Amino acid sequence: MRRAAVAGSFYESDRRGLMAQLEGCFANVPADVAEDDHIVGAVSPHAGYMYSGTVAAHVYARLPHADTFIILGPNHYGLGSLVAVSMESWQTPLGRVDVDTEFIEALPRRIIDIDETAHQHEHSIEVQLPFIQYRFDSFRIVPICMALSDADTTREVGEDLAGTIARFDDKKFVIIASSDFTHYEPDHIARDKDEFVIEAITELDVGKFYNRVFTRRSSACGIGPIASLMHAAKRLGATQGLLVKYATSGDVTGDRTSVVGYGGIVIF
Predict the structure, then answer these.
(1) Which pLDDT tens digit goes with each residue over 195-217?
(2) Is 15 helix (H, G, I), strand (E, B) or coil?
(3) Distance between CA atoms of 85 and 142, rounded to whole angstroms?
(4) Which CATH class is domain 15-267?
(5) pTM tops 0.85, yes or no
(6) What is the pLDDT of residues 36-57, one digit of tens each?
(7) Are 246 and 55 in contact (CB under 8 A)?
(8) What does the domain layout of the chain look like in residue ranges?
């Protein structure tokens, strides 16, 4: 069992407190927002809920129910295999979440390793789970932690995911890339950089995405997960993305001198 590593810091540690916190996040989503079954993937932030929870809620309010949510997160700690999937069940204050072992066993073993070490302390995947639990009653997950973000790796990961998904025509899958955007720059610079990079994501143009990341020296932490999602989504027939919410930590703290940017994007 993979126990919650950041309950009590990134989000509330008890069920009642966490449910109230999530209700507060979703209270900021317009009442007319509805789930869209055409969505095949999304980009969602992974900061503390007080900072990025509203952006995440705007994403999860639109996601359709899936049998399996594939969650790609960056490896902030450098532990374990460079691209690692977890086979353990995950625990949060809202209960246990099981992994889709059938899907994981069907994955090619050319780049994605089974390794729990990479997930032990990593928060980028964990913080997504309570949002899914809040929205849906029955689902499984495929948690994949990525320490690599180069073009070859993300193409292979995306191809492996899309190819394996195609083998399960009786299941609905949604792929989530966990990422924050610009880190610790003035608010106006963060917004400008992030708008530039996010435009390439919504166009599903992986080459442009990498070019803009490098050109503007983007400090987005989930470049690998985002690019892998884009590759997989295109293989699955997606044609575009939509930015549904953007904010910075400055919107919460009032300090605009050094912020982190958060973008919520759905892909269909």
Answers:
(1) 999 999 999 999 999 999 999 99
(2) helix
(3) 7
(4) alpha beta
(5) yes
(6) 999 999 999 999 999 999 999 9
(7) yes
(8) 15-267
